[in-house]
Design goal:
Strand order of the largest sheet of chain A: 1-2-3
CATH class of chain A: Alpha Beta
Helix content of chain A: 40-55%
Largest sheet of chain B: 5 strands, parallel
Strand order of the largest sheet of chain B: 1-7-6-2-3
CATH topology of the largest domain in chain B: Oxidized Rhodanese, domain 1
Shape of chain A: elongated
CATH architecture of the largest domain in chain B: 3-Layer(aba) Sandwich
CATH topology of chain A: Sufe protein. Chain: A
Helix content of chain B: 25-40%
Radius of gyration of chain A: 16 Å
Distance between the termini of chain B: 45 Å
Largest interface: A-B, 23 and 15 residues
Oligomer: heterodimer
Number of strands of chain B: 12
Strand content of chain A: 15-25%
CATH architecture of chain A: Alpha-Beta Complex
Number of helices of chain A: 6
Largest sheet of chain A: 3 strands, antiparallel
Radius of gyration of chain B: 18 Å
Order of helices and strands of chain B: EHEHEHEEHEHEHEHEHEHEHEH
CATH superfamily of the largest domain in chain B: Rhodanese-like domain
């Protein structure tokens, strides 16, 4: 992907955001922000019975790169399990978004994924606590 | 040429307002250049006729950590259909941060007719003026740049050898947190950090953005004189501005040189990413 292709790719996500809006019945709702850019992104996830993310939505305001990245991440993680989302790499995301472009603002580019991973981690901890409550013996 | 209302600036002609630009969109002697920090903004929509200056590819030599050379600058001007008599109007996002950086670079290569659109892209948008996605093309010109005038550019050795010069004033235009050493980089720019935090000894902290109003326009000459004068930054001094890589400090260079008329101001573009990493370079916190 050359520089202009990367710009066009991000621009498409910025101008035609995928999965934008609230999500009913979400298992995860987590917000994150970048004070320097006034970015504020909220990620929503609803898991199916198979443990895979069946709906991933996002909301919020922010700079062009943070919004485009949120749109891309919402598409990318659809169908993944909590473990798979937690294992996702920021480096891979930056590569897919176009390293040359987004490395000028890495915190904006990774805001959505970082927020999502925090949400998934909390969800995962709660799930484990629910299935293996402290003091229980199986 | 019509500038902005504030005629107490030393060189009021360097500023044009948005209405003046709107009236000159079809003037062949004018070339608009959009220079943004946010790399997507031009594609989202720009002033009709404006070309895009992409800092990361158009004017930097990343191998030598330097700027495009004289020949490269000539080729750039030719590509945009700019000749030596063209009036260039620069504008951009974030208080004209990169527009002023470009102004400084273009001045170094001797372009005479340079302007900045006061308030930049934000003001144009807020006034709901015309925008387009159409990328213009212009017939190539034969442009002749001057050899780089490095009297407006400072280098590390000069900064180091003048640390005790009583006529020298250093201005650190970064955030107070970067100046104090609390942050090793600007918020959201972790890739542009340094090994050490702090500032060059003796530097005064005057963040670049203090020169701008909330609508992106420049503060009045009186307000600017107060801001810099209160820190003993006066026209009789030999002033060097710096930030982390010389962008924000070019904005302050523009304010001091063009709006307040200081005769001896240089931008140290090596800035903190150089000084903060140099072995044994003295720092303060």
């Amino acid at each position: 992907m050359d520089r202009q292709e990367a710009i066009d790719f991000l621009l498409d996500h910025y101008e035609n955001p995928r999965n934008f809006g609230p999500l009913e019945g979400s298992d995860i709702t987590m917000s994150g922000g970048n004070p320097g850019c006034a970015d504020m992104i909220t990620m929503h996830v609803r898991f199916g019975q198979d443990g895979k993310a069946e709906m991933v939505n996002w909301e919020g305001e922010g700079c062009t790169i943070s919004r485009a990245a949120a749109s891309y991440v919402s598409e990318m993680v659809s169908g993944m399990s909590a473990e798979e989302i937690e294992a996702m790499s920021f480096e891979d995301l930056i590569e897919e978004l176009g390293r040359e472009l987004v490395m000028t603002r890495p915190t904006c580019a990774t805001l959505a994924l970082g927020t999502l991973k925090r949400g998934v981690h909390e969800y995962d901890m709660k799930q484990k606590a629910h299935h293996h409550p402290e003091g229980s013996h199986e | 040429m019509s500038g902005t209302a504030n005629s107490t600036y030393a060189h009021p002609e360097v500023l044009v307002d948005t209405s003046w630009v709107a009236e000159h969109l079809n003037d062949p002697q004018i070339r608009l250049i959009e220079a943004d920090e946010d790399v997507l903004l031009y594609e989202i929509g720009h002033i009709p006729g404006a070309v895009k200056l992409d800092w990361h590819v158009d004017v930097q030599d990343k191998i030598t950590r330097d700027f495009v050379d004289q020949q490269g600058f000539e080729q750039l001007m030719s590509r945009w259909g700019i000749d030596n008599d063209t009036t260039i109007v620069l504008y951009g996002d974030k208080n004209n941060w990169y527009a002023c950086y470009s102004y400084w670079l273009f001045t170094m290569y001797g372009h005479k007719n340079l302007r900045v659109m006061n308030g930049g892209r934000t003001k144009w948008e807020n006034e709901k003026r015309e925008a387009t996605k159409t990328v213009p093309s212009y017939a190539p010109t034969s442009y002749h740049a001057q050899p780089a005038d490095e009297s407006i550019r400072a280098f590390r050795d000069d900064v180091a050898s003048n640390l005790r010069n009583p006529a020298r004033r250093l201005i650190d235009v970064r955030s107070p947190q970067e100046y104090s050493g609390e942050l090793l980089h600007m918020v959201n720019y972790p890739q542009e950090g340094a090994q050490r935090g702090g500032h060059i000894p003796g530097a005064k902290s005057i963040p670049w953005g203090t020169a701008a109003n909330t609508d992106g326009t420049f503060k009045s000459a009186e307000e600017l004189r107060q801001i810099y004068g209160s820190k003993d930054i006066t026209p009789d001094k030999d002033v060097v501005t710096y930030c982390r890589i010389g962008e924000r400090s070019a904005h302050t260079w523009f304010v001091l040189t063009e709006l307040l008329g200081f005769p001896r101001v240089r931008n140290y573009d090596g800035s903190w990413t150089e000084w903060g990493n140099v072995v044994r370079a003295p720092i303060e916190k």
